[in-house]
Structure formats: structure tokens, C-alpha cells
Automatic annotation (TrEMBL):
<dbReference type="InterPro" id="IPR015222">
    <property type="entry name" value="Tam41"/>
</dbReference>
<keyword id="KW-1208">Phospholipid metabolism</keyword>
<dbReference type="GO" id="GO:0004605">
    <property type="term" value="F:phosphatidate cytidylyltransferase activity"/>
</dbReference>
<comment type="similarity">
    <text>Belongs to the TAM41 family.</text>
</comment>
<comment type="pathway">
    <text>Phospholipid metabolism; CDP-diacylglycerol biosynthesis; CDP-diacylglycerol from sn-glycerol 3-phosphate: step 3/3.</text>
</comment>
<feature type="compositionally biased region" description="Polar residues">
    <location>
        <begin position="51"/>
        <end position="66"/>
    </location>
</feature>
<keyword id="KW-0496">Mitochondrion</keyword>
<dbReference type="GO" id="GO:0032049">
    <property type="term" value="P:cardiolipin biosynthetic process"/>
</dbReference>
<protein>
    <recommendedName>
        <fullName>Phosphatidate cytidylyltransferase, mitochondrial</fullName>
        <ecNumber>2.7.7.41</ecNumber>
    </recommendedName>
</protein>
<feature type="region of interest" description="Disordered">
    <location>
        <begin position="44"/>
        <end position="73"/>
    </location>
</feature>
<keyword id="KW-0594">Phospholipid biosynthesis</keyword>
<dbReference type="GO" id="GO:0016024">
    <property type="term" value="P:CDP-diacylglycerol biosynthetic process"/>
</dbReference>
<dbReference type="Pfam" id="PF09139">
    <property type="entry name" value="Tam41_Mmp37"/>
</dbReference>
<dbReference type="GO" id="GO:0005743">
    <property type="term" value="C:mitochondrial inner membrane"/>
</dbReference>
<comment type="pathway">
    <text>Lipid metabolism.</text>
</comment>
<keyword id="KW-0999">Mitochondrion inner membrane</keyword>
<keyword id="KW-0443">Lipid metabolism</keyword>
Length: 435
């Protein structure tokens, strides 16, 4: 009965675009280390019958006798397999609280009013605001009011655009004149699956909002297909409408960003170095960093939002047994081959496949024999001196095409006038950048 329940849940999850509902729990936490902290949701555990015990726990009990304790899970960033319903309609209390960043009340009210005014006519499942209009960035003039960026996750794009076209036809360019089907097709078949309406005035605020299906959003968060939105969510954003499935997927996304950064860092590093690595991932391969963005953008984001980065990542780091927090913002990681192998093994499949391809190519060019045995192969690449280079090149290849095609698509979805205005603003920031 248990196996049937797990397989059914997994099958439904895969249909919904979530491939690793169970495997997402950071197994960097291993079974060999002594668990720390108190178990989460102990009341729910007390109500569990023996039929709810996972297969791995049954094996553990059968090996160590009937009195062997169940493996303990730590902190609110964990979720038991049986606590995830197939419809993702609920999560344990406080799960993913690290994703909710505090902002001042006046800004919160303004942002929420903007979303509510659109949500009232065209329902939104998940919404967040981001960028210099929400969080301060070093090098930006605080007296100027920048365009505020939003992303709206919706269930059915064509239906949503149909409702929004009726309520707000002036938000759209000429593509909107072709109807909701043309808009949805443009959104989903080109670029990174996002349709942007820039330079829209709502409640006196100049905004740009992107529309994406929740399926596409969660797929990118879990698998890093384009890193267009998963990379955006590596950095602090203000969530305005939350969704359990997206929150779960984003927690996987944040752990994966942390793992990539750890594999790229030395044994000892600072929290700022970690955050620079994480914040810079999605800019690898983005052509706008060469012609339209401040080249110091990553450092400016982290330096001005350090407390928000700590809010986002400190709870995750506290749950990784291979990372130890030292004094004065310094950290240390276990860089043993076994731990690095486990960390690499948990990377998104799209990234892991690309790194292995580049590693094999490098070995072939050097005339070195490729190890075929899976365990040894993973350990070999995870401890390779050039692993950081393979990671960067793979991420560059993931980001490059979607970023370029999304920008080209923006010319059609925004219109020539708005595109020119947006481009001039970007170039203005580039020319006046801080040296």
C-alpha cells in the first residue's frame, strides 16, 4: 500500500512538472551524521501510523532492530514525503519562510495594490516584485523612481491574457490586437516562456510585468531549463501572492544555487563571497551584461542587500552538515571527495549533464582515459581542478540562448516605441555606471 501511494504521488507530481518532490530534501545531510536541533512538526509525527513510515526508514529499522530510532529531520526547511499532498495545496507551517523578505510597509502596500488591481480581473497564482524599484542597489540614484518589475505566475496563460485583454487592453502592444491565443503562443513558444508588458502605469506607478505559466516557472526552478526566472529568484524578491507548489520548487532552486556556489569556492570563504557566486550565476551568458547592464551589478546587488541575502540563505546553510559557520562572517565547508560527490550528484540534471559533457571533452583532448564506473566518474569530476570552469561554461550555455531570444521577443511584445525607450534607459545606466 505504501509503495502504491508513493508511486502515485510521484506520478502526479511528474505530471505537474515536479520531478524531485521527495529527493529535494538536502541529503547533503546524510544519514551518518548525528542530527542537530529539534525535529519539525512533531505533533504530526506523533499522529503517524506505522503505514506512513518511508521505505528507507523501514530498511533502517530492519537493519538495526525494532528499537532503532527513525532518522530525524531538522528545521522548517524539511518536508516529510507523506506531508506533501499530490495537489501541493498545503505545506507545513513556516516552510520556506526564508523566501519572504521584509520591506517597509508603505512600499508593501503600494506593490500589493498594483497586483490586486490586476488580480481582481485576471486571477494570479503567484506574484513577486524585484529589482531596484523594490530593493536598494548601490550605484542607483535614489531620487529617481525606477520602473518596478513584477512577475505573475498564472495557471492558464491564454485564459489569463483573455481576461486581462478585456480589462487592460492598453497594457499590450500590437500583438494584443491579434487576441489572447497569439499572445499566449508568443509567450510560451519563444524565449524563456515569459510575456512582458513594460511601461504600464497602474495606480500612478510605472511598472513592467511578466506573465509565465506556473508549470513553466516550476520546471525552470527545478531543472534550470533556461535559468531566466530561477536565476532571478536566486536573489531577494518580494513575494506578493504565494503558491505552495512554487514555494516548494523555489526551495529546491535555492539549495541548488547554494550547492553550485559551494563547489566553486575554496574550503574557507566569507558569506559575501558565497552571495557573489550565487547572485552572479544567472548573469553568466547574458549578453546584456556586455552592452546594457552595469558591469558591477552583482557586487552592487549583494552589497546593498546583504541582510536580505542572509535572510534567504542562512536557514539553508544552517541545515547543511557540510558547512560550518565560523566567526565574523566566515564559513568552512567539508571539501572531501565523498561530500563533493554527493553535492555534485544533487545538481539539476540539465546542469550536471552539461558539466559531465565538458569534463569528458577535456579528458579526450588530453588523451586521458574516461572512467566509466558511475561512482568513480562522479567523484572524479567533483574533485576536478577545473570544475568551476565546467560549471560556468555550462551555465553560460543554458542562459545564453533564452536570454537573447527573450530580448528579441521583447521587441514584438513591447512594441518599437517602448523597446527603444527601455533600451535607452539601460544604455544610460551603462554609460553612467560606477567605475
Amino acid at each position: 500500500m505504501l509503495n502504491r501511494t508513493i508511486s502515485t504521488t510521484t506520478a502526479i507530481a511528474r505530471q505537474r512538472g515536479i520531478r524531485h518532490v521527495i529527493a529535494w530534501v538536502p541529503k547533503d545531510l546524510n544519514t551518518d551524521h548525528k542530527p542537530q536541533g529539534r525535529a519539525y512538526n512533531t505533533q504530526a509525527r506523533a499522529r503517524m501510523s506505522p503505514n506512513h513510515i518511508s521505505t528507507s526508514q523501514r530498511r533502517h529499522n530492519s537493519t538495526n532492530g525494532p528499537t532503532a530510532p527513525l532518522r530525524q529531520r531538522r528545521g522548517p526547511n524539511y518536508i516529510m514525503d507523506f506531508e506533501v499532498p499530490p495537489d501541493m495545496s498545503r505545506l507545513p507551517p513556516k516552510f520556506g519562510d526564508n523566501q519572504h523578505i521584509d520591506i517597509d510597509d508603505a512600499t508593501w502596500q503600494q506593490l500589493k495594490a498594483v497586483v490586486d488591481s490586476i488580480h481582481h480581473k485576471a486571477p494570479i497564482r503567484y506574484a513577486f516584485a524585484y529589482g531596484s524599484g523594490v530593493f536598494a542597489q548601490k550605484g542607483y540614484d535614489s531620487k529617481k523612481k525606477p520602473m518596478v518589475d513584477f512577475v505573475f505566475g498564472v495557471s492558464h496563460p491564454q485564459h489569463w491574457h483573455s481576461l486581462n485583454l478585456q480589462a487592460n487592453p492598453h497594457h499590450y502592444s500590437l500583438v494584443g490586437k491579434l487576441g489572447s491565443k497569439a499572445v499566449a503562443m508568443t509567450q510560451e513558444r519563444f524565449g524563456a516562456g515569459v510575456y512582458f508588458n513594460p511601461f504600464v502605469e497602474v495606480n500612478g506607478m510605472n511598472i513592467k510585468y511578466g506573465v509565465v505559466s506556473v508549470d513553466s516557472l516550476c520546471n525552470d526552478l527545478l531543472n534550470w531549463e533556461t535559468m531566466y526566472l530561477s536565476g532571478r529568484l536566486h536573489k531577494p524578491v518580494k513575494i506578493l501572492i504565494d503558491d505552495p507548489r512554487t514555494r516548494l520548487s523555489n526551495q529546491v532552486n535555492l539549495f541548488n544555487a547554494t550547492r553550485v556556489a559551494l563547489l566553486s569556492l575554496p574550503k574557507r570563504f566569507t558569506s559575501e563571497e558565497l552571495f557573489y557566486k550565487i547572485a552572479g550565476l544567472s548573469y553568466l551568458g547574458d549578453f546584456r551584461m556586455s552592452i546594457g547592464e552595469n558591469p558591477h551589478k552583482v557586487q552592487n546587488i549583494v552589497n546593498a542587500q546583504l541582510s536580505q541575502f542572509h535572510r534567504l540563505y542562512d536557514p539553508l546553510l544552517g541545515n547543511l552538515s557540510n558547512v560550518t559557520t565560523l566567526r565574523e562572517g566566515h564559513l568552512e565547508q567539508d571539501d572531501s571527495p565523498l561530500v563533493r560527490s554527493r553535492t555534485f550528484q544533487k545538481l539539476p540534471p540539465n546542469l550536471k549533464k552539461g558539466v559531465l559533457y565538458r569534463y569528458h571533452s577535456a579528458l579526450s583532448k588530453a588523451g586521458v582515459e574516461i572512467v566509466k564506473e558511475e561512482g568513480k566518474e562522479i567523484q572524479s569530476v567533483a574533485t576536478a581542478p577545473d570544475l568551476d570552469k565546467y560549471l560556468q561554461r555550462t551555465i553560460h550555455s543554458i542562459v545564453q540562448i533564452p536570454a537573447l531570444s527573450q530580448s528579441i521577443k521583447g521587441i514584438a511584445t513591447a512594441g518599437l516605441l517602448k523597446t527603444g525607450k527601455y533600451g535607452m534607459e539601460k544604455l544610460g545606466k551603462w554609460w553612467t555606471r560606477s567605475k
